[in-house]
Amino acid sequence: xxxxxxxxxxxxxxxxxxxxxxxxxxxxxxxxxxxxxxxxxxxxxxxxxxxxxxxxxxxxxxxxxxxxxxxxxxxxxxxxxxxxxxxxxxxxxxxxxxxxxxxxxxxxxxxxxxxxxxxxxxxxxxxxxxxxxxxxxxxxxxxxxxxxxxxxxxxxxxxxxxxxxxxxxxxxxxxxxxxxxxxxxxxxxxxxxxxxxxxxxxxxxxxxxxxxxxxxxxxxxxxxxxxxxxxxxxxxxxxxxxxxxxxxxxxxxxxxxxxxxxxxxxxxxxxxxxxxxxxxxxxxxxxxxxxxxxxxxxxxxxxxxxxxxxxxxxxxxxxxxxxxxxxxxxxxxxxxxxxxxxxxxxxxxxxxxxxxxxxxxxxxxxxxxxxxxxxxxxxxxxxxxxxxxxxxx
Length: 393
Hints:
There is one protein chain. By secondary structure, the chain is of the alpha/beta class. It contains seven helices and 35 strands. A nine-stranded parallel β-sheet has the order 8-11-14-17-20-23-28-31-33, with helices on one face. A six-stranded mixed β-sheet has the order 2-1-3-5-4-6, with no helix packed on it. The chain has a six-stranded parallel β-sheet with strand order 7-10-13-16-19-22, with no helix packed on it.
């Protein structure tokens, strides 16, 4: 069977879905795509917006199983999906969400009509990314589930005796280095990926996912549930946050209840507020609404899209949303909605032109031996044009 993850709720999940399909969001140890690959024991493809489809292609065949890319797989979901016949659609009435359907035709999501299918109600509960803050609120559960799946039947590498470990939920992949650290996995698992490193003096409380090639710098303080995606550099204090990959928070400063996309960099002593002084529920900018939306949360920090940066000593207010390829610096608190390709801070904003933004992207990616391709440039150009309406400087 050819499995295709289709986008759902794309606009609700901006700015992260400006540069990726919904299923490429990381929550837990793995992205949603990787979760489905593991559960299905195959490689899925994507049905997403046209401008992303070149980088994330769809594989067509005579018969295709379309699966909602915002949903986390479960054994019950897999079993129900495998029972679908052509023309049948799996639906959850409680969440009013299409889970999966089977068809021999390529589907146009913009004109999709579920009434063309025979609906089968799926009553078992499941998790899905509905809002951007779900990425960190679901992270505790997601790390635990991914940890169980990835480590089942496998043996961990031994922990160096220079460390102190409390608990029994620790897994270290091949090539990882951990020395002189305090690790507490009593509240949740700690997963240390291949060739990752925890430097001396670091104190870690699970759940934690430190993915392949990532590094916790000396004397880091990490509270669960936190995911540090592949090839990140992290120092200072971090709590209940998700870094998708290739992003840096290399110095002192606090990051809590936050999500960073890929290729972000927080300058030294960047600090994020995750709680209002009056302890009220927080609102955050929402692209679907075109205004600020109540999260229902008391704790919410920084949401930063791919390729965005902050200068040293930058301060972000509670529930600040930063778009793609923004550069934030200067004294005082900047606005709590910073559009894509914005350059500046509390005092002044200008447009960060793509020729300059691409120079920065190329240099940063080159340091990790990753090419900034013509396909990447085309996506970023599209995002620049698409987000121009928000840059009223």
